[in-house]
Amino acid sequence: MQEYGDKAIEALAKARGQSLKPTYALMVFESIAAPLGKAKEAQIALVEVERLDSGNDAYWDRRLARARPQWGGSAEQMEIVAQKALAAGKSKWAIYAKNEIIELQERERAGGKLHANQRITLTTRFLDTDRSFANLTALSIAYAELEKYDIALKFMDEALELWPTSTSGLYRRARIYTKLGQHQNAMKNYIRAAQFGHYNAIQVVGAAVMFGQRGRKADFLNGMQWCKFGASIGHGESMECVARSYLVGDNMKKDANKALDWYLRAAFVGVTSSRYEAGALLIDGSKVPANQALGVSLLQRAAQSDFKPAVELLKKIGAPLPSKVE
To answer: Which tens digit of pLDDT belongs to each residue from 190-204?
Structure first.
């Protein structure tokens, strides 16, 4: 695996400044280098990414996501992100990180099982003195978990009066409306959240418009515009949508090289299926120039997430499997 890793890193280094934007090339360089023991090279790449892209919201979204415990991070790492965000003038992301740290600490104090009723009890105590967006949202989420959607909607409405452009609030309200069977109101909130850049909302709206879901008339070209919008702000699944359309020629001219470029971008932000698709294209070499080293490295990353097609293809070509799946 180390041999393949070295070759992949070399190939990625050559990719900088060519078909890939520098930030994306560096992100994939860092994500592949770190697990292969190239800690120094990975850190240098990450510092360069920070220098190039620290003004981009998508960058801070990625930084915070990777600092969360479920992705191998910790409260301490989220605190570092909060401090760096403040230093970069991104106070919104510092607040996000601080709120998540508080929630994590509350969960730890409750033995890791802060259930909905416990959250309601905890948060209600603060409402008289702090009827904030965060507290109202916490109550809305808790009541939704208890399937008390009417009460959840009431608190979410009040929260959005305080912060009308909150993408997470609009998205949550859309989901509550869906649970209540109010699909027209749900779609209005999904669209508004998507317009402000909420990743999951963009995916919902794009699919609804493209395939005629959620009471919408099918409009592939309009749906593709939503996918391209999501892709432009760093949403991995939207990038994969664009890649797939270029590959199969859905109402557009086939272009395998553009498909590969978008699959790689999606792979760089952690979309497992795109790691597989990009790796398979590079291994096959019939539609794009072959690159066995990079292809194998991408397949190995997909296999680490237990993506069975990647495991099967690695076995078929006789390449080493990651230790996790051997």
So the answer is: 999 988 888 788 888
